[in-house]
Write a structure and sequence with these properties.
Strand order of the largest sheet of chain B: 6-7-8-3-9-10
Helix content of chain B: 25-40%
Order of helices and strands of chain A: HHHHEEHHHHH
CATH superfamily of the largest domain in chain B: P-loop containing nucleotide triphosphate hydrolases
Structural class of chain B: alpha/beta
Radius of gyration of chain A: 23 Å
Oligomer: heterodimer
Shape of chain B: globular
Strand order of the largest sheet of chain A: 1-2
Shape of chain A: flat
Strand content of chain B: 15-25%
Distance between the termini of chain B: 26 Å
Number of strands of chain A: 2
Largest interface: A-B, 50 and 58 residues
Number of domains of chain A: 2
CATH class of the largest domain in chain B: Alpha Beta
Number of domains of chain B: 2
Strand content of chain A: under 5%
Helix content of chain A: 55-70%
Low-confidence stretches of chain B: none
Distance between the termini of chain A: 32 Å
Mean pLDDT of chain A: 84
Number of strands of chain B: 19
Largest sheet of chain B: 6 strands, mixed
Chain lengths: 257, 484
């Protein structure tokens, strides 16, 4: 689901922006839904995410179809709040009274969840990890730490594949039985963690030799040949992020619900 | 591509001992390699090849702890002293696993990684990347993500990333071991052009010598850490006497294809995402039959085994297994199917095996005396024998083997073959996925090639077809030295 929130491989919208500008926008969206009161700003943030997804190659229908689990879970959150909050004026009853405060609290929680998940998915989908890594390294973070991020990205698919193979080996040998006790849980963890860990350590060994062999850590600094250049779209994304933060601050001060 | 001149290696009485190992990994090795020479180092697994390469590359003992005696000089400068020049200064090492040694996300960044670490000016980095990629004929890969490359492409990128450092000596530790035959041929062709063109010193560890003979290499044969044999040159006719020929002579009994088949795949289609991997594949295998499955990486060979094992369901068609299937599945890497803390307990993962039966299984797998040893502390060869022995311990009638020969020396290969032959005699159907074409050619009754097309038939017929369609890397002739 993560990789396919936005269909196609178009180069439009946020895909053209530098990863740092996109990261700033993501942080602004998260701040907006976490710090703003009521649903006004949160609803605006959701519409903004859907609009940006559309601009970046994902028609709202596609986003909604591919993000249906997220939608389903946010509706569940709404329902839980509606059924559990008793304060406020009663609007109607469905066996239990539904209050205006319950509806508002549910909508707030559902919108917050939707924006956090969809904006994160959008960021991951439109951001080229290679460009993001380069941008992080260019920020001035010591490159030894910056490369940890790059290596983590290199290791994710490896661990995913290794985990799948180990689980299949367990199925073949009939040791993927359901977990019914603490002992069987411990055994299942040991049977899975040990082989994956061994593979991971061997890989770390190889990659360390490969990196050291090419002069990694030889000097305190290294050359950065390809730098991310800023374009008008990046300024537009930064401007949008600042606007979002300003609206959030205003909403807090004026108590917009 | 220019490189600094020279590239002389002098190894004097080199002995390397790893902590907690009784036998030294290298024992009093002395050797002089002249600038511009091509040397092939061969020998069984555990003979000391990788240790020799890691010492020459400057990783032992500076990164990998070991007690080292003797002296190693590169162009007259010791690489064993504390203030020795770093590995990047004059020696480049290409390792076995093409995927594991890549540390960035794009081809351009990967090749630029070394020059950027050396703090070269950006223009110089750009020039070196372009030069390295062009010299290997892979300039078109510059913008590609490293995760989307084939094995052969990854290994060529790894070599390009070393060339960008302009080393005087290039060490290649079994660079084709993890590649499909097509990828291996790409690397061999590349090595030929490197050796012929620019006078760099090349030191290679390799088991398959025939494709390297046009490089006119000098040969070093290691055994248990010692140099057993030196040959100033090797000819194709020498390979037999040196026991290095890729050809195998394996008895192949006639399979009676009457009665109901033991394994049927009928019009099986399978795809990950939208790209079809297997398209309406039909196969019928009778008891005692061994089917070799060959083809490029990513062509669906392992998926076929997973479908036969019932780990995947076909999206179209059906798979009919033996009536009471007893499955033996050997995965590509032994550690993926080793779960227990001791060798003895590993035999009791599925059914309790103990007493005389366990002793017999251990003896046959040549693991007796190792009952209480942690399996992951065993050598790669011992781990492989353990996984084959546990897979066969239940007497499977469907045996699935995914690259069981990778990283195995001849002695272990012979042992694994003996187990396959024993299973065949008992009437098991065997599906063997392997990149070892000469071995597949000798062992298998029938062959399935998966690639641009699926070709299935008698072994000789399929090889004839592959040769006539210019896929010679997948034919035994290329590996046995018949094609030049």
């Amino acid at each position: 689901m993560i990789a396919s929130l936005v269909a196609g491989r178009t180069r439009g919208g946020l895909r053209r922006a530098t990863p740092l500008a996109n990261l700033l926008l993501l942080l602004a969206l998260l701040a907006a839904v976490l710090a703003s009161p009521g649903i006004f700003v949160k609803l605006g943030a959701l519409l903004l995410v859907l609009g940006l997804a559309a601009l970046s190659g994902g028609a709202p229908r596609t986003v909604l179809r591919r993000g249906r689990f997220v939608l389903g879970f946010s509706l569940f959150l709404l329902l839980i709040q509606v059924l559990s909050v008793r304060e406020g004026g009663v609007l109607f009853s469905i066996g239990v009274p539904v209050t205006d405060r319950g509806l508002l609290a549910g909508a707030e929680m559902a919108l917050r969840f939707l924006v956090i998940v969809l904006s994160s998915l959008l960021f991951i989908t439109v951001t080229d990890p290679d460009r993001l890594a380069r941008a992080i390294l260019a920020l001035g973070i010591p490159y030894r730490y910056g490369f940890t991020f790059v290596l983590a990205l290199r290791f994710v698919p490896f661990f995913r594949e290794e985990y799948r193979t180990v689980r299949e080996a367990q199925r073949v040998r009939g040791v993927d039985r359901p977990i019914r006790s603490l002992k069987s849980l411990r055994r299942s963890i040991r049977y899975t963690v040990l082989p994956v860990l061994v593979a991971g350590l061997a890989r770390v060994d190889t990659v360390a030799v490969s990196m050291k062999g090419r002069g990694f850590d030889l000097h305190a600094k290294r050359t950065i040949t390809r730098r991310e250049r800023w374009h008008p779209i990046d300024l537009a994304v930064v401007g949008l992020s600042l606007l979002l933060v300003a609206v959030t601050v205003l909403a807090r001060e004026r108590g917009w619900q | 591509m220019p490189c600094a001149s020279s590239g002389e290696i002098s190894v004097q009485s080199l002995t390397v001992r790893y902590p907690d190992r009784e036998r030294p990994a290298l024992d009093s090795v002395s050797e002089r390699i002249r600038p511009g020479e091509t040397v092939v180092v061969t020998g069984a697994s555990g003979s000391g090849k990788t240790t020799l390469f890691r010492v020459l590359g400057g990783f032992v003992p500076s990164m990998i702890r070991a007690k080292v005696e003797g002296e190693v000089l590169i162009d007259g400068i010791s690489i064993l002293t504390k203030d020795s020049p770093r590995p990047a200064a004059g020696v480049g090492l290409v390792q076995q696993d093409p995927d594991a040694q890549i540390c960035t996300l794009s081809v351009w960044e990967e090749v630029a990684f070394g020059p950027e670490n050396l703090c070269l000016p950006p223009e110089e980095v750009t020039a070196r990347v372009a030069e390295s990629l062009a010299s290997l004929g892979i300039a078109h890969l510059a913008g590609r993500e490293t995760t989307r490359l084939s094995g052969g492409e990854k290994q060529r990128v790894a070599i390009a990333s070393i060339l960008a450092l302009r080393p005087r000596v290039i060490l290649l530790d079994e660079p084709t071991a993890n590649l499909d035959p097509g990828g291996a041929k790409q690397v061999f062709d590349l090595l030929r052009s490197l050796g012929e063109r620019d006078g760099r010193t090349l030191v290679l560890a390799e088991h398959r010598l025939a494709p390297l003979l046009p490089l006119h290499p000098r040969l070093l044969l290691l055994e248990e850490g010692k140099v057993l044999l030196r040959r100033p040159s090797v000819a194709y006719s020498d390979l037999d006497s040196l026991g290095l020929r890729a050809r195998w002579e394996i008895p192949r009994p006639v399979v009676v294809r009457s009665g109901p088949p033991a394994l049927v795949l009928e019009g099986v289609s399978f795809a990950y995402g939208e790209a079809p991997l297997l398209d309406r594949l039909t196969l019928r295998l009778w008891p005692g039959e061994v089917l070799g499955v060959i083809g490029p990486n990513g062509s669906g060979k392992t998926t076929l085994l997973r479908l036969a094992a019932g780990l995947e369901r076909p999206q179209a068609g059906r798979v009919l297994r033996p009536k009471s299937p007893v499955l033996g599945f050997v995965f590509q890497h032994p550690h993926q199917q080793i779960f227990e803390r001791t060798v003895r307990r590993e035999f009791s993962v599925e059914d309790e095996i103990a007493g005389a039966r366990l002793a017999d299984l251990l003896r046959r797998a040549r693991l007796d005396g190792l009952e209480e040893a942690p399996p992951l502390s065993l050598s790669l060869g011992e781990q492989r024998r353990l996984t084959v022995a546990t897979a066969l311990s239940r007497g499977p009638n469907l045996l699935l083997l995914d690259e069981p020969f990778i990283g195995q020396d001849r002695e272990n290969v012979v042992w694994i073959l003996s187990q396959i032959l024993a299973a065949r005699e008992r009437g098991a159907v065997t599906l063997l996925v392997s990149h070892d074409i000469p071995l597949v050619a000798s062992l298998c009754d029938r062959l399935l090639y998966l690639g641009e097309e699926a070709v299935e038939g008698e072994t000789a017929e399929v090889f004839d077809h592959l040769e006539s369609t210019r896929r010679e890397a997948f034919t035994p002739g290329y590996w046995e030295g018949g094609l030049r």
